From TrEMBL:
<feature type="transmembrane region" description="Helical">
    <location>
        <begin position="158"/>
        <end position="177"/>
    </location>
</feature>
<dbReference type="GO" id="GO:0016020">
    <property type="term" value="C:membrane"/>
</dbReference>
<protein>
    <recommendedName>
        <fullName>Transmembrane protein 177</fullName>
    </recommendedName>
</protein>
<comment type="function">
    <text>Plays a role in the early steps of cytochrome c oxidase subunit II (MT-CO2/COX2) maturation and is required for the stabilization of COX20 and the newly synthesized MT-CO2/COX2 protein.</text>
</comment>
<keyword id="KW-0812">Transmembrane</keyword>
<comment type="similarity">
    <text>Belongs to the TMEM177 family.</text>
</comment>
<feature type="transmembrane region" description="Helical">
    <location>
        <begin position="189"/>
        <end position="209"/>
    </location>
</feature>
<dbReference type="InterPro" id="IPR026620">
    <property type="entry name" value="TMEM177"/>
</dbReference>
<keyword id="KW-1133">Transmembrane helix</keyword>
<keyword id="KW-0472">Membrane</keyword>
<feature type="transmembrane region" description="Helical">
    <location>
        <begin position="20"/>
        <end position="41"/>
    </location>
</feature>
Amino acid sequence: MESVSIFWSLISVKTRLVRISGFVCLCCLQMMVSFFSPAALKVTPAWCSGVFLFQVLTDCRVKSPSSFSAFASFGFHPVGAGVPWLPAGVQIGIPANFNSTAADLSGITNRNIFINGKTVDWTTKTGSALKEALVFSPEAQKFAIAREVVRLQSGGPVLNAAVAPLCLGGVWVYSVLLKQVFGLHAGSALLRGVANMVALSIGAVSYFLTSDAVSQWTDYASDRHAARVSPEYAKGGVEFYDKILSRNKTLRSLMGRKGEEMYAPSGNLFPAHILQLKHTPYTSRREGLLALLKEDKV
């Protein structure tokens, strides 16, 4: 029981660190890359009424489209929360830059984006590169939304949430087995404490590795299912990750030292905190979609 309590406390610490790091990153993002125009919360009538989202739900053959709804979100690509079988349903956040097209960039250029306290000049080379990276074709937008729809439809948040209790139960099992194998139940409290610490260490390592493995498996599975909707979705997915990598490279250049700490030269993300091994690489996600296209499996 001591090891279970300690492991639960360790999980709580990681959860707090994740929340704190997420909050800090959000605050930094809002300070460095902020949309101060009132139009930042405004989306076109098609997006507000859910027409575009409904089209993606239809293409993905979602059985309960009424459980999904859209809202305007911050950031540069869609986000999602919830599961469709709960009363609250699923919320899909659509970013403001999804209102822009190659012919009409007003959804981006009519906003002031601040990086390191300076407004991005869209006429410069890096400004033009960032502007280009924020514009997605309809196919890329559909893939990005479908990716979130598939992830939530398949219970991705539930899988991620199930890792902690499973590993917590594992700590208890490890502790009992160690004490039985070495006959420590009747031994000294010191030896039982050592066994608990060993069980805790095994459980903690299992939790960190399993958490990252489940997260990456969910990401890859969502990409594959979204790409298999149609060849257009798969091609849109390749474009989507190409644009993300291009955007991250540009932000790495614009943000200076902070950019070098957040983004790799390839455009992938570095871990957000020391308790996370690594993000699912955008380069490998793009390569996976290219492989699907080459093998004609979409």
